[in-house]
């Protein structure tokens, strides 16, 4: 079916989001048409503001509206522990459980030769620079329990071992093939408690 151009463009825009196919995109587009104009303007402003006002923390790589981010600036956090995660959404998942009071480092991806992503394509060099500071005594590798996440954790652990910094991996209380952002707080807490030396 041929839609008028404005709705067709809106459907195409929704389809650019992950997991949104043509039917869901059309349903969302028609829902937007039913919304009040003020609500639509508020929604579009939120999209633009998120894109314009958010950046990545120059220290840890987490999304932030201030640099450095609030976590890195928080003096009450345990600066001897550094939790390495794949994506900013993983920091948010870890923070929800309220059991970890250390710092974070966001890789922005995982090593995946099949997708052409090597160690130099993710935030590993900045991690190694941070570890030159004698404050960090333990690095917790909390990459996703997928093939790529495991490969990334193993690669990083081999780089860190010679420095003498304790390197642990969160336990597999998480389902293999899953993502941190979808895990509940109890599962994440148990996984963190059961971390092991690599």
Automatic annotation (TrEMBL):
SUPFAM superfamilies: Recombination protein RecR (SSF111304). It comes from the Bacteria. GO terms for biological process: DNA recombination; DNA repair. The lineage of its organism: Bacteria, Bacillati, Bacillota, Bacilli, Bacillales. The keyword Translocase does not apply. Belongs to the RecR family. May play a role in DNA repair. It seems to be involved in an RecBC-independent recombinational process of DNA repair. It may act with RecF and RecO. GO terms for molecular function: DNA binding; zinc ion binding. Keywords: DNA damage, DNA recombination, DNA repair, Metal-binding, Zinc, Zinc-finger. InterPro entries: DNA_Rcmb_RecR, Rcmb_RecR, Rcmb_RecR_Znf, TOPRIM_dom, TOPRIM_RecR. This is Recombination protein RecR. It comes from Bhargavaea beijingensis. Pfam families: RecR_C, RecR_HhH, RecR_ZnF, Toprim_4. Residues 80-175 form the Toprim domain. A zinc finger (C4-type) spans 57-72.
